[in-house]
Amino acid sequence: MPPALPAIIEDWFASRGWLPRRHQMDMLAAAAKGDHALLVAPTGAGKTLAGFLPSLADLIAHPTDRLHTLYVSPLKALAVDVRRNLLTPIEEMGLSISVETRTGDTPSDRKARQRVRPPQILLTTPESLSLLLSYPDAALLFSDLRTMIVDEVHAFATQKRGDLLNLSMARLQAINPALRRVALSATVADVDAYRAWLAPDGDIDRVTPVMGEAGAEPNVAILIPEGRVPWSGHSGKYAAKQVMAEIEARQTTLVFCNTRGLAELIFQELWSANDANLPIAIHHGSLSIEARRKVESAMAAGKLRALVATASLDLGVDWGNVDCVIQMGAPKGSSRLLQRIGRANHRLDQSSEAILIPGNRFEYLEARAALDAVEAGERDADDFRVGSLDVLAQHVMGLACAGPFRAEELLEEVRSATPYSALTAEAFDHVLHFIEGGGYALRAYDRFKRLTQDDDGTWRVSHPRFVQQHRLNAGIIVDQPALAVRFANGRKLGTVEEGFAAQLRPGDSFFFSGMALEVVRMDTSDLTVRATSKQARIPSWGGTRMAMSTRLADRVRHFLAAPQEWHRFPPDVREWLEMQKLRSALPQPGQLLIETFPHEGRHYLVCYSFEGWNAHQSLGMLLTRRMETQGLMPLGFVSNDYALAVYGLKPVTDPKSLFSADILDHEFIDWVEQSSLLKRAFRDVAVISGLIERQHPGKRKTGRQVTFSTDLIYDVLRKYQPDHLLLKAAWADARARMTDVGRLGDLIDRAATTMLHVTLERVSPLAVPVLILIGREHVAQTAAEDALLMEAEALVAEAMRAD
To answer: Cα separation of 29 and 452, whole Å?
Structure first.
C-alpha cells in the first residue's frame, strides 16, 4: 500500500474536486522507500505537483527552517512560473513553507541572504547551482538537503548543461549521501538511459521509473493553404491570414517558430494581417528581461490573444487559458512537437489542439511524419555522450573556490557522475594541470595559474582574484558576440549579434521586438535606435539550425517509397511525387538518390539524403573541394533539410568517387582546420573552461575582445601544443555540435552501398524546392522578389512537364 497523503493535502485535493493521480501516489511511494525516481508523464498530468508532493508531505510531517528541496530547471522563466504555481496550493493549504527562485536575474542582496537564511524550497538553474557550490559555506547550506528535482530533464541531460548538473549532483550527494534525486519529463524515448543518467554511479536499479497515465489524444491538424502547398520556403508566412483567422476564433493562441529571426518575421506578417487589431506579442531569448516578463505577465493574466514565441517557451511555462498551439514550419521532431502541443489546454483529460503550417512540400511530408509519430507514441532518440572536459575544468575550479581538495578523492566523486564514469586518472590529471597553468605552452603567463598544489598534495586556488574571476564568468551558455539594442533614453530592448549589427549603418532599419527600428548610431557595445515606419529587414542570430530528427527522416523516406499512402496528401503534393516517379525515381528506405542534370548552362548534382541543413552544409563544402580537385569546376551549392544541390561548369558522371569514405579523413579535417569552425568551437570551450574570462569586475568584455583573445591563444596552441586539452575539446565540439558529423558519416557510409544515380536531361520535380534557393541565396532586398517568383514558376513548369 502506498503511503497516505497528509490530511491537509487530501483536504486540499477534495476542495478542488480532485483525486490524486496514480503516478502522484507512486512518486510518494518511491520517496517513502528512499528511492530516486524518474517520472515520465504527459503535460497536464500534474507532473510538477507530483515531483513536489513528497517534499510537501515531508515538510508537513517534519517542519524545518533549513533548505529541504532543490528544484532545477533549464530555463529562468520556468523557475519563476513553477514558483507561482507552487505557491498557490501552499497558500491555499495555509502551509508555512517558503519558496524562492535563484537565477541570474535574482538581485544580489537576495542571493547573499539565501545562503545564510535559505527557503525550504529553492528553484534554480544548473548554472546558479554550480555557483552556489563554489562558496565555502556550500557544505553547510546543503547539509540537510533531502530532495533534488530536475524538471524537463530531456532538455539538457545530453548536453553540456547536463554534464555540469550531473557533476553538481555528485557534489551534493557527497555532502549528503541520503539526498534523493527526482527527474521529470513529458518526452523521454529511452527511460533506462535517463535512469542511468540520474542515478549516482549510474546504478539504474536505484531509480524507480514512474509512468504517468496517458492523456487524451491531441487534436493536431495540418493547415492546407488557400491555393497550393508552396514549393520552397520554411516560414509558413504564406498562411498569415489563415493563422490570424484561427487566432480570431480562439481565446488565446501560442504561435511557435523554430528560430528568433523567424519569430520576428512571423510577428510582422501576423501584425499586417491583424485587421481586428487584436493584442498579440512576441517572446524570444534575445529580448530584454523586462520585455519578456511583461509579455509573460500579460499572457498569464489572459490579456493577449496570441503570442509568437521560440523555444524560449517550449518548456513547462503553463498558461491554462491557451486554446491552441500553432507551429510555423516543420516541427523537426515528434518529441518537440509533443512538448509544444502540451502548452495548449494543459489538462490531461482534454485534447490539446494544435495546427502545423508546413513551409513547403517536403515540410508537408515532415509534418505528416510528425503527426504519425505522435499518434504511434514514437519519441525522438536522445544521443547520450561522454562528459566534456571543458565543463569538468569549470566544475573543478568552482569546487576549488569552495575550499582545498585532494585529487584522488575528487576523481572518485567525479566518476560517480554518469557522463564521467569512464574518466581516466590520466585525463583528470590533464584537467588539473590545465587549470594549474593553462598547459605547458601557456605556463609562462601568471594569469593562467589558477590552481596550486601544496606539499601535502592538496590543491587550492592560487590567488583570491581567481575566485572572483570564476564566479563572474562561470556558465555553460556562451553568448555569441552581441550588441545591446537601446532607445536613446537608455531603455534596452534586447540584443542582436555583432555579425548582423556590422552590416548596419545609421539610417538602416530592421525588425526587433515586434517593432520597426531605425539605427541612430552604433558603438562597441550598443546599437542605438528609434521607432520608424520605414521598410525593415529581419535580424539574424547564430547557432546551428535544428535538424529533422533521424526518426522523422526515416518516416519521410518511407512516404517517398509508399505510393499506397499518397492518398492522404493534398492533390498538389501527390501530383509532385507522381511526376517524380514518372520522370526520375523515388528512393527506397535506406537508399541514397543522386540526380545529375543540366540546367541553364550549368551542371547539377542533387543528393536526397534527409540528414538536415547542418550536415548538408558541411557536405557541400567537402564535395565542392573534391570536385575542384577532379577538375569539375564547381560554382557553389545550396541545401535544405532534405537535399543538397551542387552545381558547376562540368557534369558529374561518377558521383561515387565524390562520396568515398576518406572524404571525412582528408577533406573534412583540412576544411575544419582552415575554416573558422574550429576557432569558433575553441572560443566556446576556452570560455567554458575558464581560460578566457568574459567579465572583469565592473566591466564586460565585448565579443570582439573575447574572440581576439581566444584567436591568439588558439594560434599559439596549434603551433606549440597541438594535443592541448582545449584543442581536443574544440575538435569534439566542431565534429559533433556544429557539423552533425555523425549524420554526415552515416550518409557517406550509405552512399557506398545504396547509391542510386539517375542521369536526367532536365531538372526533376524533387529538385525544385532546393534549386529555388539558389536565387534567394544572393538576394538581400525584396525588390527582386517578383523576378525570383517568375524564375521559380519557370523552373516548376520545366520540372513538371511529363514529356
So the answer is: 47
User: Residue 224 is part of which domain span?
Assistant: 219-376
Half-sphere exposure of 110 (CA within 13 A, CB side): 11
| Per-residue pLDDT at 351 exceeds 70 | no
Whether 441 is in a domain gets the answer no
pLDDT digits (tens, 9 = 90+) for 602-615: 999 999 988 887 78
Query: Does one domain contain both 133 and 258?
Result: no
The CA dihedral of 412, 417, 418, 420, to the nearest 10 degrees, is -60
Residue 396 lies in a domain: no
pTM: 0.78
pLDDT digits (tens, 9 = 90+) for 6-38: 899 999 989 988 888 899 999 999 999 999 999
Give the CA diameter of the chain.
85
Domain boundary among 159, 193, 211: 211
Buried b (16+ CB within 10 A) or exposed e, 279-297: ebbbbbbbbbeebbeebbe
Q: Are residues 190 and 227 in the same domain?
A: no
Q: How would you class 649 by CB atoms within 10 Å of its CB: exposed for 0-12, middle for 13-18, buried for 19 or more? A: exposed
User: DSSP letters along 411-441, please?
Assistant: HHHHHTSGGGTT--HHHHHHHHHHHHHS-GG
Cα 477 to Cα 14, 160, 348, 692, 704: the distances in Å are 44, 9, 34, 14, 17
Tell whether 84 and 196 lie within a shared domain.
yes
Please give the DSSP secondary-structure letter assigned to residue 212: P
Same domain (yes/no): 238, 318:
yes
Residue with cell 565540439: 733
Q: Are 319 and 19 in contact (CB under 8 A)?
A: no
**CB neighbours of 578 closer than 8 A, spacing ≥ 6?**
563, 566
Asked whether residue 745 is domain-assigned, the answer is yes
Examine the domain organization and report whether 224 and 193 are in the same domain: no
Do residue 133 and residue 241 come from a single domain?
Answer: no
Residues 248 and 336 in one domain: yes
* Range with the poorest average pLDDT among 203-207, 236-240, 351-355, 712-716: 351-355
Contact between residue 731 and residue 451 where contact means Cβ atoms under 8 Å apart: no
Residue 462 has pLDDT above 90, yes or no: yes
| Structural domain contains residue 617 | yes
> Which of 110-114, 186-190, 499-503, 798-802 bottoms out in mean pLDDT, i.e. has the lowest?
499-503
